[in-house]
Design goal:
Elements lengths: L1 E6 L4 H10 L4 E6 L2 H10 L4 E8 L3 E2 L1 H10 L4 E8 L3 E3 L19 E4 L3 H4 L1 H7 L4 E4 L3 H11 L4 E5 L1 H7 L3 E3 L9 E7 L11 E9 L7 H10 L4 E9 L7 E8 L6 H11 L3 E11 L5
GO molecular function, one term: prephenate dehydratase activity
Keywords: Amino-acid biosynthesis, Aromatic amino acid biosynthesis, Lyase, Phenylalanine biosynthesis
Pfam families: ACT (PF01842), PDT (PF00800)
């Protein structure tokens, strides 16, 4: 069976991956850091890796995009979107010492992944405004630490599966700002994923503009526009080579097997743009079980 690197265990990455890929065809290998997920897949220690790349509330996870672009050469093999329910997890305050207006006032420290505060901003401002936020390597790692400390003044924000696996009570479910909080995950690796076909295909490219070509970005976008090719995402990011130099990260609804998309890429290359293809892959929608 193919080995898949995930951030875990008991993380949103594991929950999302098991939902979409199941437990029959793959072996999951957990790593504490996302850098370890990338490196394990790049070195061949695992066949594929799962990377959370974008969230409804926070947008792109820039650190993970940078790894994909600058640190490793791992083609994107698939993507899926999964709902993210953030939960406050910890040990309740001794009975009789609960503040009626704020039942979580006793919590002095909150442990979780660095992307969490942006997704739970309203709850944290209302109930945890006096608590220190401490970044840990994953949401599950925060729950694990809380399980060992058994200190009611220290809580974590994480998954329901982490609460169950580490035996730490759920203090409040679904504390994210919006019910439709979703995270997009990428499956990356040097080997093909061998997944079921999808009705929607996407292609991700990096476009670096020529320095001496005024209006290059307009011409790039025009090459897609007049062919009615849909860009589902476009972001500018520094190349890290020269101040003022940027590349454009583009997600395109379409496949390289079509006639139109390769022609658009040829057109923008003709004006001196550098194009790097990060992957052409199936895109899967979430279906609840």
């Amino acid at each position: 069976m193919k080995r898949i690197a995930i951030l875990g265990p008991s993380t949103f990455s594991e929950e999302a991956t098991r939902h979409f890929l199941g437990d029959d065809k793959f072996t999951y290998v957990s790593y504490k850091l996302i850098s370890e997920v990338f490196n394990a897949t790049a070195s061949g220690e695992t066949d594929l890796g799962v990377i959370p790349i974008e969230n409804t509330l926070e947008g792109s996870v820039h650190l993970h995009v940078d790894w994909l672009v600058h640190e490793v050469d791992l083609p994107i093999r698939a993507e899926w979107v999964f709902p993210i329910d953030m939960n406050l997890i910890g040990f309740p305050h001794p009975e009789g010492q609960i503040d009626a207006d704020n039942p979580y006032k006793h919590i002095r420290k909150v442990l979780s992944h660095h992307v969490v505060p942006a997704q739970c901003n309203r709850f944290m401002k209302r109930y945890l405004r006096d608590a220190e936020f401490e970044q840990v390597s994953s949401t599950a790692e925060g729950v694990r630490i809380v399980s060992q400390m058994k200190d009611p003044s220290v809580a974590a924000i994480g998954t329901a599966i982490a609460s169950a696996n580490y035996g730490v009570p759920m203090l409040q479910r679904e504390i994210q700002d919006h019910k439709d909080n979703m995270t997009r995950f990428l499956l990356v690796g040097k080997e093909a994923s061998e997944l079921a076909s999808s009705e929607q295909m996407k292609t991700t490219i990096l476009v670096t503009l020529p320095e001496d070509y005024p209006g290059a970005l307009h011409q790039v976008l025009s090459a897609f526009a007049w062919r009615r090719i849909n860009l589902s995402k476009i972001e500018s990011k520094p190349t890290k080579k020269k101040l003022g130099n940027y590349y454009f990260y583009m997600d395109i609804v379409g496949t390289l097997d079509s006639v139109l998309l390769p022609a658009a890429i040829q057109e923008i290359e003709a004006i001196g743009c550098q194009v790097r293809i990060l992957g052409c892959y199936p895109s899967y929608s979430y279906h609840s079980e």
